[in-house]
Amino acid sequence: MAPSRGAAALHGDPGLQPERTTLAWGRTMLALVTVSAIFLRWLPQHGLPILLLFTVSAGTAAGIYFTQRRRYRISSHGIRKEMHDADITAVLWTAFAGVVLGALGIGVVLIG
């Protein structure tokens, strides 16, 4: 979900840091959607526990998608006011989802 053309004027950053951050979150979301599709492909082989993996990865991707515009707006305003902090909550939730996916993946392989 790229920011609109008018939104780029919200900050004076010549390096376009909010745009780079938005692109990075977009790549993370795309990776999670791809992993979700792979999990669905594994459903016949590993059974219903795979649906839990799919739910976590698809839910995380959806969370990134639906909060992307808010994160961009906050980042742009923070740069303009020269008081920008990293979105630690989003990073921690994404890292937590990665750890949960890893643990669930190991569990599914060991069970099946």
Task: Tell me briefly what this model is.
It comes from Pseudarthrobacter quantipunctorum. With 112 residues, the chain is mostly helical.
Radius of gyration (CA) equals: 17 Å
Percent of residues in helices: over 70%
Q: Tell me which oligomeric state these chains represent.
A: single chain
In this structure, how is the largest beta sheet organized?
A: none
The class by helix and strand makeup works out as: mainly alpha
Low-confidence stretches: none
Residues in β-strands, percent = under 5%
The run of helices and strands is: HHH
Q: How many angstroms separate the termini? A: 37 Å
Total helix count?
3
* Overall pLDDT confidence: 83
Global morphology: elongated
The count of β-strands is: 0
Membrane topology: Multi-pass membrane protein
Transmembrane segments: 24-42, 48-67, 88-111
Organism: Pseudarthrobacter quantipunctorum
Pfam families: DUF202 (PF02656)
How is the secondary structure organized here?
Blueprint: H1 17-46, H2 49-80, H3 88-111
Structural summary, described in words:
This protein is mainly alpha-helical and 112 residues long. Helix content is 77%, strand content 0%. It has three helices and no strands. Helix 1 packs antiparallel against helix 2 and helix 2 packs antiparallel against helix 3. The longest helix has 32 residues. The model has no long low-confidence stretch (mean pLDDT 83).
